[in-house]
Design a protein that fits this description.
Elements: E1 3-11, E2 14-15, H1 17-25, E3 31-34, E4 44-47, H2 55-70, E5 78-83, H3 93-102, E6 110-112, H4 118-131, E7 137-144, H5 148-156, E8 177-178, E9 180-187, H6 192-196, E10 205-215, H7 228-237, E11 248-250, H8 257-269, E12 277-278, H9 281-284, H10 291-303, E13 307-314, E14 318-327
Parallel strand pairs: 4-8, 5-6, 5-7, 11-12, 11-13
Antiparallel strand pairs: 1-2, 1-9, 1-10, 3-4, 7-9, 10-14, 13-14
Helix pairs in contact: 1-10, 2-3, 4-10, 7-8
């Protein structure tokens, strides 16, 4: 059994998971139009930190907060898993090694970089490692910060909305980018750590029950029109439960035409059209490698009960989904 025992988010909406949940509940958005953030880049709408952040220090701050929440040390029984699409100046492994060394962790870290699904794929990797008994704990970090390279690249696709995004709306004009760091600490020791602290506080535990990754092999930058990859992920994570058992689906919800349509088709094919949906891009923008981790945290904290599915899709036809259940 793989349990979430701690987490944290650092974003333009606040520091710490509680501050971010409060901001979302209050309807606050980090999105605004930026005119001079990067040289030679036309104005764009995004959720960015007021002060440009450095990748590694941002990750370290977030991990420190999550470890404090989990009340564990990053010893040899722990593996660091970094989810990112662009890393630190396109270097993916070096920052992961620097972060692990900062906490005195002796294990080689793992980097998961699978387009926009990276944060969910990293959690699936975690489940496989902990279920296999290779580690007792895993620290899953999702982080990306925006650069001139990324913004101009999305602009070349004509994918960016000049105003706050409107996922699944007939008036949608595209996506917004965002930046954030998010960390989840998972344990294979069930809820023992929380139970030992019951004289101080007790929190029900979210269990990572299932995960699936499928590639629809459709196109480098366009998803399957039938939602085939996303549909197969949903059907995999629904194994052993029914649509009626699902209380919330955290959709990708980018606000782009083809992705929104694809997700709608996949959800309907899986019989999940009547389940409540969580759409967080209007608050955070698309935080890329952080999205799967950040949006999982917000989803389970906002739900506070039952069963949750988080799904993501990305360039190259990749799709991923996880199912989590609250064990009280």
């Amino acid at each position: 059994m793989v349990s979430c025992i701690g987490h944290s988010i650092i974003s333009p909406l606040g520091v710490g998971s509680a501050a971010n949940v409060e901001a979302v509940r209050a309807g606050r958005s980090g999105l605004s139009v930026h005119t001079n953030r990067f040289a030679d880049v036309e104005p764009f709408c995004a959720s960015l930190f007021d002060t440009p952040q450095e990748f590694v220090p941002l990750c370290i701050r977030c991990v420190e907060d999550a470890l404090n929440d989990a009340k564990i040390a990053a010893d040899a029984s722990t593996i660091f898993i970094l989810s990112t699409t662009k890393g630190d100046n396109l270097d993916l492994l070096t920052p992961a090694q620097t972060i692990a060394r900062h906490f005195g962790n002796p294990n080689p870290p793992i980097v998961v970089s699978n387009a926009c699904t990276s944060g969910v794929c990293a959690q699936i990797t975690t489940k496989r490692l902990l279920d296999a008994g290779l580690y007792q704990h895993a620290i899953v970090i999702g982080c990306d910060i925006q650069t001139r390279f990324i913004v101009s690249g999305f602009q070349s696709f004509k994918a960016l909305s000049p105003e706050p995004c409107l996922p699944f709306s007939p008036d949608r004009k595209g996506l917004n980018l965002g930046e954030a760091a998010a960390t989840i600490v998972y344990s294979s020791q069930k809820s023992e750590i929380r139970d030992q602290m019951s004289d101080v506080r007790y929190q029900p535990t979210w269990i990572l029950e299932a995960g699936a990754i499928h590639n629809d092999a459709n196109h480098l930058s366009a998803p399957s029109r039938t939602g085939e990859g996303a549909y197969r992920c949903l059907m995999d994570v629904l194994e052993g439960v029914t649509p009626a058992d699902i209380d919330l689906i955290g959709v990708h919800g980018t606000g782009t035409l083809y992705n929104d349509d694809m997700e709608t088709i996949a959800i309907e094919r899986a019989g999940l059209q009547d389940v409540e949906k969580s759409i967080l891009k209007p608050f955070y923008g698309h935080t890329m490698g952080a999205a799967g981790v950040l949006e999982t945290i917000i989803g389970i904290e906002m739900l506070g009960k039952g069963t949750f599915i988080k799904m993501l899709s990305g360039f190259g036809g990749v799709n991923a989904a996880i199912r989590m259940r609250l064990r009280s």
